[in-house]
Amino acid sequence: MAMTTKTKIASTRSSCPTINITTSFLFLLSAGILFLTTNAFSINHDIDHDINIGIGNLVHKHKPKINDIMSTAPPQNRPISPTIAASIDKINDVITTDAGGRGMIHLVVSGDLLASAKILARLTTRTKSARREQRSNDDDDDDELPHVVILSGFPCCVDHTPPTETDGPPGACAIATAALGLGYRVTLVTDECNEDVFRAAVVNDDANNDDSKSKSKSKSNFTLVTFPSERAMTDQQSQRLTALARSADLIIACERAGPASDGNCYTMRGINMNEKGLIAPLHRIVDVAREGSRDKSGSGASEVKFIAVGDGGNEMGMGKVLRKIREHIPRGELIGAVTVADHLIAASVSNWGGYALAAAAALVRCNDELDGIDDDDDDSGKKARAKWVESCVPTEESEVQLLERCVAAGCRDGVSGKMEATVDGMPLETSMKCLRDIREAALIP
Q: Does residue 2 contact residue 53 with C-beta atoms inside 8 Å?
């Protein structure tokens, strides 16, 4: 189902681009209820006209009812049933085959997919007082929904415009779908150079749908944000980045270029993307959020967790396994990303890791709805699985359409360099089989 509406996107771009434009996105959270988002953080775009916008990839047929979402905020220590745990283990096995033969199997951290899923499925909003301490008086104060900030974008096709690769946008959108389906507010953040592709990933052109009439029942829940390269950042943009970081309850990076030990972001071939003027300093979002949410009990731990998804060792969060990157990944000493994730999901392809996190989070929410009772022979348990999987996990059809839109916007395979719906040099069917296997593992006890 595709949801669309007319919205105004305006831009005032000077010699140093700004991000003071607000845009609107639509998301169908439950049957007949449309969510319209209009947030302070927004897309910087060089247009001033009406366009049809919808979240084509972030819409699925079977959404949980609002009271389902609000009634299943569980205790953080609720046990995971053996059946749910086994399903998540199967999903982890699907994504960690090292299908690309790049050595990512050495980067897998046992238990981190489950740990990440529990954090995402059970996310709560930090106290209003804690947020107010971190935010300036003119920042938005929407504290009702937990805020998930998703970082993505790996502009490795440096000789092309846009330089965006096909690994990243689908995985990031899958995580956004899950977060929205779980009832959260989502901000998806990328580099300015990747804007066209990420816009295509979340925009659907089907304007022939009457469900947009229900938009009056909704409130903001999704925003796409871009920032320019570090050298082009203005003081105002730096302040907006800081404010965004301080509003986060959880940060997730999916195939997000990460600074190496020398501060630069590198492709797998060792090309410096910072020198090309392509990399926005999105790693600062993690730094600011962590520093601003330190546990005052004395432990020094950050209340805002950082989950990362990657496949090559040069993505944000891979600092957790930096020694292994330097031992097992070609050019690991140069390209190894140093930012440390609280939990790391290493996958053969980062998109697959995004699908896996979405499915695992759906299973944890299902587990909590069933009070941790095994569901293998229970019809209600199977129905609960189906409800949450359909809420949180993309379908093959939606993913094929998303990739086709991305390629039409100029996206390329990061390995072959071709404008085609392949990912990391692998045929589209390889990714779709992975998605099928993930959905099967999630749906069938």
A: no
152-197, pLDDT tens digit by residue? 999 999 999 999 999 999 999 999 999 999 999 999 999 999 999 9
Identify the helix (H) or strand (E) that includes residue 114.
helix 112-121
pTM of the model: 0.82
User: How far apart are the C-alpha atoms of 309 and 317, rounded to whole Å?
Assistant: 7
How many angstroms from the chain centroid is the CA of residue 155? Answer: 16
| Backbone torsions φ then ψ of 36, nearest 5 degrees | -105, 130
Q: How far apart are CA 408 and CA 396, in angstroms?
A: 18
Within 10 Å of residue 303's Cβ, how many Cβ atoms? 16
DSSP 105: G
Backbone angles phi, psi at 367, to 5 degrees: -55, -45
What pairing do the DSSP bridges indicate for beta strands 250-256 and 305-310? parallel
Q: Which pairs from 205-212 meet CB under 8 Å and 24+ separation? A: 205/4, 205/52, 205/54, 205/56, 206/2, 206/4, 206/54, 206/56, 207/4, 207/52, 209/1, 209/2, 209/3, 209/4, 211/1, 211/3, 211/28, 211/32, 211/34, 212/3, 212/4, 212/5, 212/26, 212/34
Report the candidate in 417, 420, 425 with the shortest Cα–Cα distance to residue 400.
420
CA distance 317 to 337: 7
Structure tokens given for 9: 């996107």
List Cα–Cα distances, 73 to 67, 91, 124, 224, in angstroms: 11, 24, 8, 26
Chain segment 87-130, per-residue pLDDT in tens: 999 999 999 999 999 999 999 999 999 999 999 999 999 855 45
Per DSSP, what are the bridge partners of residue 38? 24
pLDDT in tens, 370-409: 887 766 567 888 999 999 999 999 999 999 999 999 999 9
The mean predicted confidence, pLDDT, of the chain is: 81
